[in-house]
Amino acid sequence: MTSSRNSIRWSTTDKTSESLVSGFTFYFFLYFVIDFFIRFSARFPAYGVIRPTLIEVLILLVLLFSQKDKFKYKMDDPVFKGFFVLVGYIIISIPFVEWPGSVIRTNLDPFVKASVFLFFVALFVDTERRLKVFLFIFVGCQVFRVLEPLYLNVTSGYWGSSTYLSSKEFANRLAGAPADVINPNELGFVIATAVPFLHYLLWPLGWKSKALYLLLMPLLLYALILTMSRGGFIALLVVAFFVFKESKKKFRLIVVGILAAILAFSVMTPVQKERYLSLIDRDAEGGASAEGRIRGMVNEFKLGMTRPIFGHGLGTTPEAKVHKLGSRQASHNLYAEVLIELGVVGFLIFMAFLSKIIKKLFFVRSSFSKLNMDSLDFYARLNKALITLFWMYAVYSINYWGLSQYYWYLFAGLVIAFSNLALKNVSGKSYDSSSVESCHYDSKFRLANKVRNRSY
Predict the structure, then answer these.
(1) What share of the chain is helix, strand, coil (3-state, %, to 5)?
(2) 81-93: average pLDDT
(3) Which of 286, 181, 167, 150 is nearest to 230 (CA)?
(4) Would you say which domain of life the source belongs to (predicted)?
(5) Would 25 be classed as within a structural domain?
(6) Does some domain include residue 437?
(7) What is the pLDDT of residue 167?
(8) What is the pLDDT of residues 202-240, one digit of tens each?
(9) Listed residues 69, 89, 111: the one ending a domain
(10) Which of 267, 236, 34 is nearest to 145 (CA)?
(11) pTM of the predicted model, to two decimals?
């Protein structure tokens, strides 16, 4: 009986998988991605008057619901289920948080705008070609966001931000371009996001891809130096660790790493050197601010425990800090932010949501390894990039907020889309994503499964 039920489920999923979202929907989604990251509304004021991002989201939601029968089966994915639990908890807990009015009036909107990326990416990226096109657009936008301010810096002396020194002077730091909204730390985050994709998707290919990789990487790393972002530097170290861990040519990587470090240190100004050295030397310039950041994180966790069950409410971290810590500075720690806003219960739900993402990536990796998939395969390389990116995000979130930011939700949607296509590529049929967890169960009882299958 079990075998026949499984065959029915597989055949149903196979039929559903052939129904793709329309080409117009996908390409309009790509336009939304470009508009979101490149910020046409800031570059063309007349265009910004109509609030294009909001209109684009509404159009995409209409297109999503009009084609909902094409991807109903995808909603059974464990990552989707984890997100639905999180949303359900946020809604149910509103009457019990400290500032429910702030949640309803102002803070639900940013969360919704960020979380739609989960649905758009997971449901609209439904073929290998569309996955590659989306990656090209997404990574290309991140690279453009780095190269634009770097170009302005070289050609016109643009910086975009500065930091206060103990000598009562200001040191310039490279931030996003004038049309962008990212500060130096966020620019460092963008750089660290692009690097894993470039390394795993470009370097293993032909000489043209290698040449592009060798052209872009020095520019990105030089831009990171100019940001003086210690968080971005740590994020890059996380990426470097996983690249080193996966590499079969570790000695060569060590040599390249040493040469890159020497070259990077040689082009730094004294202030930039002091800034990065402050990570390990508290007496260096910037060491006091690093210690202050750590104290701030500790205080944020203490603040979260003042309302440990339901929290203060979604998006109320600045409000809670004003009333209880006397400062409105945004949270610099995602985990503290979640604790402050959602309480311990919400914190555990959010961490469960993240755990489902990495478990899915591990499951795909194990599926590939059992079939002896070569590391040069596109899906195997992308899986390595996504695992690296997950841990980079997890570490960087210690220094960055994100509950109502896009990056975790876009990443989750990308993991869903990638895993569906990767498993389909492995088996020659579209996996029912709800079966991911059951596959682990089946693998533990192989003998019983063989006996049961023979009986039918």
Answers:
(1) 75, 0, 25
(2) 95
(3) 286
(4) Bacteria
(5) yes
(6) no
(7) 67
(8) 998 889 999 999 999 999 999 999 999 988 999 999 999
(9) 69
(10) 34
(11) 0.86
